[in-house]
Structures are given as structure tokens and as C-alpha cells.
Amino acid sequence: MDLGLPSGSVVVGFVGSMKPWHGVEDLVVASGRVLARHPEAVLVLAGHGPRAESIRDQVASLGLSRRVRLLGAVDHAHVPALVRGFDVATAPYRPSSDFYFSPLKVLEYMASGCATVYPEIGDLPQLVAGGGLGYRAGDVGELEAAIDHLVTDAPRRLELGCRARRRALEFTWGGVVTSIERLVQPDMASAS
């Protein structure tokens, strides 16, 4: 998906429904500070939801309108191309004592080969497993530092993106079958 960005732009991105627990407001604050230091960085936000208008207002009030692309809802068929255009993918979930779900967006980011910035909550650290940078959930300063590190370190982005892609392949149907086979093969061998 062509975003019309200048050559050499470093794209920090988010895709998802903009609900309170997604933490997009935290992402705007953290990214705004990174954008102020790095003129090549751009924030791309795709999605719609109950927080979309307040996020649009937040972007404007922080003077970030020229550096943040607010795409609104993107047809699901276009999401893979959009995510492949990200240099840094973000899943800025807010702290939750009952973070129980497995966010599909993180696996989509990883499958696209994106270095992913994620909060260390729930099963995210085990899911990402070296394919991104974690930070303490709710700590906007740590979120900012993780984004800043990846914006300024292209080799590290590439390394983490490659690890993320390999890790995501473990969650395909073929990868799951292979994992199950590894678990049951010793028992099957001893039974025969």
C-alpha cells in the first residue's frame, strides 16, 4: 500500500480497532517524542473505533498532523500490504491483570517480518520470543525508548524482523502440526 511517504522514511505503525485498552493514546505520546528527534520517522495509524476521534484530536493538539497518517478503517484485504510497509510495528496494549487473549495483530506483524514493540503482559513475551522489543505495560517512557531504538537502528530492525517471521511460522497450521508431532512421537515410538 503506497502511503506517499518520502524515500528514507521510517514507518512506525499500528493497525487495529481503537479501543481504550489498545493504548493508541500512549503510542501517540511516545511516538510524538520520537518524531521530534527523528525527521525521517512517521507514525501510521490504521483502524477505527470508539477512541478514533479523540486520537485524531490528540494528534492535532500535539502538532503532529504532518507526521502522523490517520488512515481510518482499512479493508482487511489491504492490511498485509500496509503492514509490510511498516519498519516498526506496535501493539501498545495498556496494563491489564487479566490480559487473556492472543492478539492476532501481533502475529500478523511478525508474519510480515516486522520488528514489533509490545508490552510484557500475558503471553506476549513468549509469543514474540525475540522478534521484537518488550517494555513494561503502561510505561510510555519505555515505549518511547523501544520505538526510538528501532527507528535509529536499521540492522537491529532487520534482525528482529527476520526472527519475528521465523517465529510466526511456528503458528501456521503446518507449524502447529509439527509441534504436536514432536510431542507425540516419543510416545508413539515407545508404543510400537
Describe the structure.
It contains 8 helices and 6 strands. The protein has one domain (10-191): Rossmann fold (3-Layer(aba) Sandwich), CATH 3.40.50. The protein is elongated and about 70 Å long. The chain has 192 residues and is α/β, with parallel strands linked by helices. A 6-stranded parallel sheet has the order 3-2-1-4-5-6, sandwiched between helices.
Strand content: 15-25%
H-E order:
EHEHEHEHEHEHHH
Number of domains: 1
Please give the alpha-carbon distance between the first and last residues. Answer: 53 Å
Give the low-confidence spans: none
Categorize the overall geometry: elongated
Give the C-alpha Rg: 18 Å
User: In CATH, what is the class?
Assistant: Alpha Beta
Placed side by side, the strands forming the largest sheet appear as: 3-2-1-4-5-6
**Can you count the helices?**
8
State mean pLDDT (0 to 100 scale). 92
Q: Give the structural class.
A: alpha/beta
CATH superfamily: Glycogen Phosphorylase B
Counted beta strands? 6
**How can the largest sheet be summarized?**
6 strands, parallel
Determine the fraction of residues in helical runs and give it as a percent range.
Answer: 40-55%
